[in-house]
Amino acid sequence: MKKIIAMLLVLVMSVTGLVGCGSSNKSGSEAGSTSTSSDSDWAYIQGKGKLTVGITLFAPMNYYNEKNELVGFDTEMAQAVAKKLGIDVEFSEINWDSKEVELNSKNIDCLWNGMCITEERKQNMSVSDPYLYNTQAMVMKKSREKEIMKSVKGLTVTAEQGSTGEGKIDGSIADDDTVKVSAKDYFKDANYVASDSMAKALMEVKSGTADVALVDSVCALGMVGEGTDYEDLVINMDNNFGQQEYGIAFRKGSDVTEKVNQAIKELYEDGTVDTIAKKYDLQDMLIK
User: Fold this and answer.
1) Are residues 183 and 53 part of one domain?
2) 210 and 180, same structural domain?
3) Residue 51: left if φ>0, alpha if ψ -120 to 50, beta else—which one?
4) pLDDT surpassing 80 at residue 21
5) What is the number of domains present in the chain?
């Protein structure tokens, strides 16, 4: 079922002509990441010998498996890129709403955690080439799907604080020409409550403290359904709230962005990216 939904998602994206959160397909360095400092971010990272990656926990991007090992598509991609660049990688859990503060204060060196590219983020950070397609999905209890899809008036909707879902609901992320239904209009009569993470947004729905979670489709497909902790929940993408593309964010003007872009290009060429994507059932959403 998840694969069918993923295939349909990619088909819709190809038909509507993806522009991903208002982004172009230019690399982050081409999209306005002019350096304001003569200092080399790469020299700084080389000097400490490691790339510190800011993450939140959600499958299939960054999460702990049954052996308590940090795994996921973004986790393995960051590890592969760091190895190619000859440095170590360290993962640091952050509050997503504070991501830019964490980045600029050098508590972390990049955000590699299913981050949707937006114009605001491209203005404030240096963003990599897009690497994965995404959209926003409504998640709710199976038993209430018909009722909720009929009307969300007076219901409680939740999304991760600082996420694209929240930005779509409050209108801080503008609708583009891939949007068929405006999330701001759709949820205007609902009660919005922020969650600390997308995983916690799903927990709120499962526990009944929220009626609907608006989360990344990549997250929903990885965490909801048969064989998961959320078998009683259902993914609904009938409303096209617009398509997005995932990118990796670095400090504004960072010279690490192009090094990572080139490393990922080489990992595509040697088959590493496809191998990792297949492991997490994301091969149909890759941007090649």
Assistant:
1) no
2) yes
3) beta
4) no
5) 2
